[in-house]
Amino acid sequence: MSKTKKIHIVFVxxxxxxxxxLGEGIFxxxxxxxxxxxxxxxxxxxTASYHTGERPDLGSIRAAAKHGVSLDGQYARQFTGEDLxxxxxxxxxxxxxHSNICKLGTTSGNIHLLREFDPEEPGDVPxxxxxxxxxxxxxxxxxxxxxxxxxxxxxxxxYITD
Length: 162
Ligand code: 4NP
Description:
Elements: E1 7-13, H1 19-33, E2 40-46, H2 58-66, E3 89-92, H3 95-103, E4 110-113, H4 133-157
Parallel strand pairs: 1-2, 1-3, 3-4
Helix pairs in contact: 1-4, 2-4
This protein binds 4-nitrophenyl phosphate.
Family: Belongs to the low molecular weight phosphotyrosine protein phosphatase family.
Pfam family, one: LMWPc
Organism: Aneurinibacillus soli
């Protein structure tokens, strides 16, 4: 696969301060570890605008830092109709985010629930917002194992070799 045509992938939750920043940070970390950074453009967004411009929640920053993953440089933004045609992969954290994205129009890429790639069980990524550090660590673990499955899927589908 050509490195000049990057795969554009965006992780989407409600507020873009808890789950999707973890998706973005963890997926970027996995891609870097496998030496595949030049193949990807990675971002995150929220279907709501409540937290636009804010840094990720401290619970997400702490859970990520505990695993050596940085969320530096991330600021919340809203997912809009214009995003629908910008991304090859739109990865929703739960079925409510998924349906809110679909309501914006038709996407030119692939829209998935992240846990379609969870090797343990499908479903929604639980929202840890205001639930304490243990909830953030549980959410981290779900997103981490699902992102491994997602990256393996993309590598297979796009014949990516390092
Ligand atoms: P996130 O969590 O969607 O994972 O970023 C939430 C953050 C804030 C709110 C809801 C969920 N809120 O209602 O403000």
